[in-house]
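Thread: S-adenosylmethionine complex, take 2
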Amino acid sequence: MSNTAGRLYVVATPIGNRDDITLRAIEVLRSVDGILAEDTRHSRRLLDHLGIHRPMTALHEHNEVGLVQRVIARLEAGESLALISDAGTPLISDPGFPLVRACREQGIAVVPVPGASALIVALSVSGLPTDRFRFEGFLPRRQQARLAQLQALRRDTATLVFYESSHRIVETLRDLVEVFGAQRPAVLARELTKLHETLRSAPLAEVLDWVEADENQRKGEFVVLLAGAGEGGDAGATDVDDVLRILLEELPLKQAAGLAARITGAKKNSLYRRALELAEG
Ligand code: SAM
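Output below.
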């Protein structure tokens, strides 16, 4: 790398509301030599709206690996470039990873210009615990692979965050109910920052019923969030209740809750509360 190498700016753009672009993003997009965009036609609309007219290059999932060396050469020759995607933060379920990794490996400056990301936007208004969360992005298309991935998350105590499109939202919710149980607390965040922004908090089966019953609720873009196992007084899933019931037949409450926590990975405090409810009920 020469001393005059340019920089790669990783620039977040809005996830819906155009006003959610930052002042710094506008300044950077205006000043770079070129913009690498996932879909140049889509991004041109935003850039035209901002009065920005810089040369654009398409960088998407089908060409991004092949483009890495050419982009690196431009950066090494001193050009500064901005990477944007269709919405939100590049690389978050979006192209850019091979390029950013190559730049970092070759000592080329990669500069973040932060802004919206649907997962953080959804999490921040979900009312679910935000201290620990697990972002799973899009689930696999094939149902068998999807169910296998979900099974592996069943006992995870962190809040779970998924991306989904209108095409598969019903199928995905059905699979979530199958794996996590009807009662797992869920939040469906649809069309965030847009005209039809909708947030629905309810047990999973109710969210599914609601989406199945109303075609309008199947339109747009979705973030699906689930409470972690043992969160929100749901005792995670029915199987946690089963474990507690069996242990309560043989053991005092505190011991049963402690053992159930070790078996299921759920939090001891919430299991203790749940054990109390079960013992009383
Ligand atoms: N890079 C983006 C980000 O930082 O959020 C995500 C890109 S990914 C290809 C697109 C997915 O993000 C959508 O299918 C949806 O799951 C989620 N998403 C993006 N915008 C959204 C919005 N306004 N409301 C709800 N979900 C959204």
